[in-house]
Each structure stands twice: as structure tokens, then as C-alpha cells.
Design goal:
mainly beta, about 10% helix
């Protein structure tokens, strides 16, 4: 991801953003809602055996019925293209929900909450536990605009699920990607993309997000775009134009007032989660089977992540973390990440476990990177070295520990060597659970580094077999399993 993608705007992109669904073929066979993280994963189809509901709630269009892979017939209730005021997507017997084309939550109210765009109205989308929302093609996606909010809050046994029509119909398999658009959340927190002569953070620093013609940014660090909790998004991603794609979840200018925890993105055709600027914090994140980068950051994001499982598909996926810092370097990207476990693809192809470039200054703590037939870490430019990334209590287990590409090679290994409690060796992971080698690393206290983070007695995302924070609401974590 580069700055040219952020600023990309063309008549073609605008036209596509207003189009409806485009059906995408679905390979393989699958199982909707089957959990593999220690529980059932939640179906969220509104359920029961009583057949389809007779009608749809007020505010939704009745677009017929759909038959699930389990053989249930459900009423298909379509969300409106523009949500103004409050819309509740209720868990309701015999009912499932869908989007067609771009679905906007609110209208863009601008960068400054004290001076919103005249006439622009707020939208609030609330999705109840157990609800499933699906799209039928790549141009079906949801945009939460600046000044509006989404509250999609499930439970550990009844998550909210955003997925594809094929997933509902039970025709997805382990490599089913790109079957609908995804979720874009736009906020008013700072970004490094600024007009000439403007230094961030500044309310005048705004940008167009990739994949659509919507805007993000401002100077409200604690901006609140709502809450995602126990939320699973699957089989998403779509290329609007070459180099301009929808991700699973795009967080652009999202502020620290937003709650983002217990979130899974599975089988996105582009990145799992990509953050453009903002100050959003995330906790308990699962990224599985995503075809490009699992977690991608850019344009001045300064937030924190703790407890993150990244598991690539055996023969798909690029980088675990691809971290960049395009834009004005007065606000270079500087996240703090602790307790991540990155498990790379097993065929030796794809990108490195972690790549830092364009002045990025990652602070990584208490984490594990495992890619036995690939490379763990690459640092690509002098500006990143100058900004001072740090590694502490990190265990690397890869075929090649550091990328030797003639670009900052000595600095790459030196940054790892100067940190505390870092080590490299063979992996003893049991799935996503630490083994003997990982458990031997002394963790580094992190609460004093960033108040969002908690101190732990272990490295990696999962302490031991009794640590099951990911169980019940996720799927596809076990190697070879499907969702």
C-alpha cells in the first residue's frame, strides 16, 4: 500500500462505488458458521426450524428468501443504501440480512465535529448478537462515514457475522475469497496525508480511503466510531481498480474512543485489517487465511494492538505485518504491538513475516513469528532506521531470520540484537499455543509503554492450552479447517 493508492480518485472508481452486486464464483464446499476455535462459532442466521419469517422489520426491504447450507429457508431483509438516524438489525427468527451495492451509514459530516458539514446527517447502525449480514458480490460493502457509528456486538457464543452469500448457502471452502466487499469505517482522528504546507496533526489533513470515494481524517484523537465486539467478517475483498482494493476491515482515521476487540477477519482477498492513520486500539484479534497482508498500517497510525493471532493459509498470503508510513513524516506511523503470534504459510512462498518501510517505527513486544520455510523480518529504508523501531521479548522461528536484500541488512539484524530478551530458533508451537521454546522467553512489561496494554507472564497471543479467549466465536484457526 502506497500513498498513490490513498489519493486515487477517478470517474471509474466513482461509478463503480455506486453500482450494485457483481456475482463472484465460489470454489469448493464449506460449512456456514462452523467454529474451529473450541466452540461452534455461531451461525447467526436468525434461526430455528420454523421456516422463513413472513416479512421484514420496518426499514428493511423484503427481497425474498435464501436457503442456507443447512437447508433452512430464511427471509432475506436488505439494509437500505443510506442509513440515517438509528437502524437496529435485530436477531429475529427466520430472518437473515443483506446489503446490495454500497451501503452508507450516515453522510460524511466532515473533519471537524465542532463544525460539521451543513445538512449532512448522522447514521447509527446497531447489529444484535447472532445476526448475519451478507453481500452477494464484490461491490456490496458497508461504509461508516465520519460522524456516524456502528455497534456490532455479539457474544462469545453468538457472534455477529458479516459474510458472503456463498458462505450462507454453504458453498465456500478453504480458499474462498473475494466474494463481497467488506467493511470500511471512517473517522476524524489524525492522518499524515496533508495539503502542501500543512503539518499534521491538523484538522486540514484528510484523505480519500482506498477502495471507495469516501474521506477520512481530522484532528480528534479520541473520536468514537462505535464498537465491534465478538465480530467475524469472512470471504471479503474486491479490487475496484488495479492497486485500489477493499480489504476485510478498513479503519481510516478511526479514533481511540472506538472499541475494537474480539474481531476476526477470515479469507479476505486483500488485507485482513488495514489502518490508515488514526489512533484506534485493538485487542483480541484473529486474522486467518487472508490473501495479501494480514495486518497493514500506514499514513500515521498511532495505536496499539494486544493479543493477535495471525495464521496464513498453507499456500496463500503475503506478509503477516506490512507496516508503512506514507505521508508527512511529522506524523510517521508508530504503533505499539504486544502478544502477537504470526504463523506464516508453509510452502516457502509469499512475503516476510514482518516488513517495515517508509519511516515506520514499530514497537513490538512479547511476540512470536513462525515461518519455518520463509523469512521473518525485513526493514527496507533508512528513514525507518532513523525513527527507531524496537523489538523486545520477540521469538523468531523462520527458515531465514532476516531478509538479506542489500537494503539496510545490518540495521535489520542490529535492531533485533539490541532489544531485550529477543531470541531466534526452532518453533515448538502447538497450533497457536506456545511450546517450550516460546515459553522460555521472558516477557517485557508493557503497561508503562502504552496504557492500553496489559502486562503478561508470557509472550505470544495464547498463554497455554487453558487460554481460550479465541474459542467459540472464531473459525478456521486450526490448520486446514474451514469456516
Amino acid at each position: 500500500m502506497r500513498l498513490s493508492k490513498i489519493l486515487l480518485a477517478s470517474a471509474t472508481a466513482l461509478a463503480l462505488a455506486s453500482c450494485g452486486s457483481a456475482e463472484v464464483a465460489s470454489p469448493g464446499e464449506g460449512d456456514f458458521g462452523g467454529g474451529t476455535g473450541g466452540g461452534t462459532g455461531g451461525g447467526g442466521t436468525g434461526g430455528g426450524t420454523g421456516g422463513a419469517a413472513a416479512d421484514c422489520p420496518t426499514g428493511f426491504a423484503n427481497v425474498g428468501t435464501i436457503t442456507t447450507g443447512a437447508g433452512a429457508t430464511l427471509r432475506n431483509c436488505q439494509l437500505p443504501a443510506l442509513i440515517l438516524g438509528n437502524l437496529v438489525v435485530a436477531q429475529r427468527a427466520g430472518t437473515i440480512y443483506s446489503v446490495s451495492g454500497r451501503t452508507d451509514v450516515g453522510q460524511d459530516r466532515g473533519a471537524d465535529p465542532a463544525a460539521p458539514i451543513a445538512g449532512a446527517q448522522q447514521g447509527i447502525l446497531t447489529v444484535e448478537p447472532g445476526v448475519t449480514v451478507f453481500g452477494s458480490g464484490g461491490l456490496d460493502y458497508i461504509v461508516v462515514n465520519r460522524g456516524s457509528q456502528i455497534f456490532a456486538e455479539g457474544t462469545s457464543t453468538s457472534p455477529v457475522v458479516f459474510t458472503s452469500r456463498q458462505s450462507v448457502e454453504g458453498t465456500t471452502g478453504v480458499d474462498s475469497i473475494g466474494q463481497w466487499g467488506g467493511l470500511v469505517i471512517l473517522g476524524r482522528a489524525p492522518t499524515a496525508v496533508c495539503p502542501a504546507g500543512v503539518t499534521p496533526p491538523n484538522v486540514g489533513c484528510v484523505a480519500q480511503v482506498e477502495g471507495t470515494n469516501a474521506f477520512y481524517g481530522g484532528n480528534t484523537g479520541a473520536d468514537n466510531s462505535g464498537r465491534l465486539r465478538y465480530f467475524r467478517l469472512m470471504h471479503s475483498g474486491f479490487q475496484i481498480l488495479p492497486g485500489n482494493e477493499l480489504n476485510g476491515i478498513t479503519l481510516a482515521g478511526v479514533g481511540s474512543g472506538t472499541t475494537l476487540e474480539y474481531i476476526q477477519v477470515h479469507n479476505s482477498s486483500d488485507d485482513g485489517i488495514e489502518l490508515f492513520g488514526g489512533t484506534a486500539n485493538l485487542k483480541y484479534v484473529v486474522l486467518t487465511g487472508n490473501d495479501d497482508d494480514s495486518l497493514d498500517t500506514d499514513t500515521g497510525w498511532r495505536g496499539a494492538v494486544q493479543f493477535a493471532i495471525v495464521r496464513q493459509a498453507p499456500t496463500r498470503g503475503d506478509r503477516g505485518f506490512e507496516f508503512s508510513s506514507a505521508g508527512n513524516q511529522a506524523l510517521f506511523t508508530r504503533p505499539v504491538i504486544s502478544n502477537a503470534t504470526i504463523i506464516g504459510r508453509t510452502d516457502g512462498a509469499g512475503g516476510d513475516g514482518i516488513v517495515l518501510n517508509t519511516g515506520h517505527a514499530l514497537q513490538l513486544y512479547n511476540s512470536v513469528v513462525s515461518k519455518p520455510s520463509g523469512t521473518c523480518f525485513d526493514l527496507d529504508d533508512a528513514a525507518t532506521v532513523t525513527n527507531g523501531p524496537t523489538f523486545n521479548s520477540v521469538y523468531l522461528s523462520c527458515g531465514t531470520t532476516f531478509r538479506a536484500d542489500g537494503n539496510q541488512d545490518a540495521a535489520t539484524s542490529g535492531i533485533f540484537a539490541t532489544g531485550s530478551n529477543n531470541s531466534a530458533g526452532g518453533t515448538t508451537l502447538n497450533g497457536v499455543v506456545n511450546g517450550t521454546n516460546e515459553a522460555a522467553i521472558t516477557p517485557t512489561p508493557v503497561n508503562g509503554v502504552n496504557g492500553f496494554l496489559s502486562n503478561t507472564t508470557y509472550i505470544g497471543a495464547v498463554r497455554d492450552s487453558s487460554d481460550t479467549w479465541y474459542a467459540g466465536w472464531t473459525c478456521g484457526i486450526s490448520a486446514g479447517s474451514t469456516c
